[in-house]
Design a protein that fits this description.
Number of strands: 4
Distance between the termini: 53 Å
Number of helices: 11
Structural class: alpha+beta
Strand order of the largest sheet: 2-3-1-4
Length: 262
Amino acid sequence: MGYELANLYVLSNDNKNAILILKDILSSDKKNDEASFLLASLYLSEDSPSQSIKIYNELLENNSKKDSNYYYTLYGIANCYIKMGSYYEARGNYERIIKDYEEFDDMSYLMYNLALSYEGTKNYDLALKTYSNIVDTYPNTYSQKMALQKLTLFSLQKKEDNLPDKNLDKAKVSDVVGTKVKIFPSNETSTFQMGRFRDKKRAEELTSIIKNIGYDSYIKEENKDNSVSYVVRVDLPSDKRNVDELRKRMSSENIPFFAVKK
């Protein structure tokens, strides 16, 4: 009964109460794998990967037999490492699942996360090959859409990072139609940076993508040490709801950003 109630809270986007119920379940039944998996996933969605990975490690001890639970636990651990920026550890776990468990339900998304970990370890050639493989192998999936967006960003950045040209012919600008963003007013303004380029044309291409998502992006020209760079930015009133919406929209198109001081 408690687990079903926790799921109802999850469905109503009330993770806080769901977590409280699951913790109560596990206090009396520490080997309840169902509750443990859900609690670990909720901690991860609430940006608490250290708490999540602790639960996954306990699950790993309880499921040492190499069955589906074992590999899904490895997947959860790998996702925690991605969130923590520990890309080598994440990469190792994703590769292990691919090698040993071909029956994994959502291989396209696992491959996408693996490509992210290749990026994080600066193995750009493997990242490009993996994104390209997703595009070829998993048509009409969300992972394919995200991989295409990643290839687009690689094509924009290739001159900046001296990346290889192969596989970039698959990249294209997202065809998502921009929708109006509700902006909440604030007395202060925050500035967010989406990219920095030496080639103005590439900065303009990224600005166009961001405008298509729904934001008034602009380019700021900076000159330092006799070198000109073009910085893509977005200004927003400093209301948490604006930042949350920006994060959601940028994340859907896999565009990284961070707050900067003017």
